[in-house]
Amino acid sequence: MLLFEQIKEITGGYLQEKVYEKMYLTALDSPEGDFIDVGCAQGASTISLALALKKRNSNYKVYSIDRFNQSAALLFFDSVEKNVEQLNINLEKFLLKDYVKIIIVGRDIVPNRKKIGFIFLDADGAIDRDFKRYYNNLQEGGIIVIDDYEKIFNIQTKTRFLKWQNEKQINSYLKNQNLSSLFEYTPLGKQYTIYKMVTFLINQGYIEVIEILDGTLFAKKTKKIEYNEKTDLELHNIRKEILNEYNWRHKKVIQEYRKLHKSFSMLSQYSSCDRIIAYEKYNYSVKKEERFTKVYEWDKEEQFLIEDDYIIQDIWYSDYKEIKDKLDTKGECLIDVSCMQGKRIKDFLEKEKIIKLSIYSIIIKENIIGAIVFLYSEGGKFWENKEKIRKIHENISLDFVVLQKEVEPYLSL
After folding, report:
1. Residue 62 in contact with residue 37, Cβ under 8 Å?
2. 3-state secondary structure at position 63
3. CB-based contacts of 224: which residues, under 8 Å, 6+ apart?
4. Packing angle between helix 261-268 and helix 386-407, nearest 10 degrees?
């Protein structure tokens, strides 16, 4: 196995082997100084950069920076300690621990290195924050590599941000990300935010493009130019523009999905459930798997009061295969929560005192495009008028097809 294939396999790196190899080769010829890796995950980029320092017999280090939780790129979703341990294990396999300094965001002081030769940015899309912190100390001719430089709306934008139904959902998600508002985040996706900000910086002469390889930008600092308050304000205004664009797109999408309200109110009359949720299928491109995301919810009081709503947003995130296997030939199943295998969603449903899920898949030409899920709490009697539900369910299936066509223009550039 070739070296960079091995690095990608061991670390679960998301980028192509040729991108890691390009980083290594570019780092070999970068100016003297420390290397900054923001969003290192399991270490594919850090290892590629550290190998270059080792080859150069350099005394500088790679500063490997990450939150080490709440990311699909990590081995453990919610354990900082285990993820840091895994990164150290990966570094040890390549005998590189002496060339790397690990920085845990939120715990450690993020370094302000005075002499930087190489910067790799692959975190949350906060280009303004990272340029403000590192750019002025990057040597002239220093390398900046930025992943996700693409003018697109990513899958998370299309399936989550633009379909959130209310402010409670949004605020719950932001709270989990330790953010106070959507302005601090990337509501139209990491790629689109990066594209807008970085294109501005290119046009202003802060960096000069070397190459774009599979959506990863390789550039260098060619002038003695400072990142200043005026530049920071310009990027601040770009964030404002993105948020305004998000707001009008989101409003249009939600107006369409609210058309489901009447049908779901009718469904509720033929069931003793507490809540009904509609999901749509999408293909998660990074791991090449099918997932479902929530696009509509009805409850007894027609309110959205669940603080941890972002979890149930992806109720089939880890349990899709388990549930799909239980669907009968009619595309229906009844599941006891206590028998579910997926720990994350099972724990959440038990906390919410949900004991049963009744599921009706939405099928068009043999392909499941979504599902209607009835949630039943403990203490109530379980009953459903299946004949009535099936009739309404058929109409909702047709509505879904129309809705998907209606909202597509607002989910695309």
Report:
1. yes
2. strand
3. 140
4. 160
